[in-house]
Amino acid sequence: MSSPADRSSISPLQRPLTRLELQRRRQQLQELLDYLDTLEQEHGALHHRASAFAARYDAQLASLYAELDAVEGELHAATRVLAEALQRHGVQLQPLQPPPPSPRVTAGPALMQLPERPALPQEPAADTVELPPPTLKTLYRRAAMRLHPDLAPTDAERTAREQQMMDVNEAYASENRARLEALLLAAGESPERVLGGTAPALKHWLSQCEQMVQARTRVVQAQLAWLRTQALTRMCVAVERAELTGLRPLDIMAARLRTQIQERRQELYIGQRLQADDRLAVDFLRTRYSRMTGYGLR
């Protein structure tokens, strides 16, 4: 067994794990894994919800948006022709800008999937020299060597050690191993000499696993935060909440789109039949420009 001076020169990574520390580290690693599993399940559930909503949204509204865009394009072309004809007749108008695309919520680029979780390294099976816990009798002998009153440097220390040795004798007589371990640790005995331990390879494996799980946790947290901020996800949550109250937001949106398509087709019908010398042409263009830009037309 190494001396205290030898042990003090060993790095924290090389120092053996005690039995209790090994148990604590394993439990800590499992808790990290459990938390990571929870985050990944939360991300997967939200990703699935948003993707399913995107499919439902597109199935119900995508064709209507496409139709509205097409009609808007035809209407813009017709009004440009009319504006150019009016200019040839001496009516100077501001140029009409292309219409903005129909407002919609789309998935945009595909919602990011989580990268595959890397497998943890295999627990080392070799180079893990065990330091078994000492027997109860060995613990008692070590306690006696450390706490015997005859070894006390002062009278006050001797009195304290007499009480401690009474505790040691009582713990040994009742085979209370935990009490003996606590007394030895409190007296300054090294944990591996009291509790046993394992070699550095296992400690390195635990540290490596903890670092990998923590890095993966940060990735999942970042992607989950990104997913929650997406317009598609926010609309999904809002629509589902409204549907729980009996509303049908997508049906309402579809009805509004059909109304807009019908209105634009009526505008297109009128715009294609107006002539440059028709006094209604300027009013039509003013109304069209105002609706597109929010400003009047000179």
UniProtKB/TrEMBL annotation:
Record-linked SUPFAM superfamilies: Chaperone J-domain
Coiled coil recorded as keyword: yes
Keywords on record: Coiled coil
Coiled coil regions, renumbered to chain: 22-88
Protein name per the record: J domain-containing protein
Higher taxonomy: Bacteria, Pseudomonadati, Pseudomonadota, Betaproteobacteria, Burkholderiales
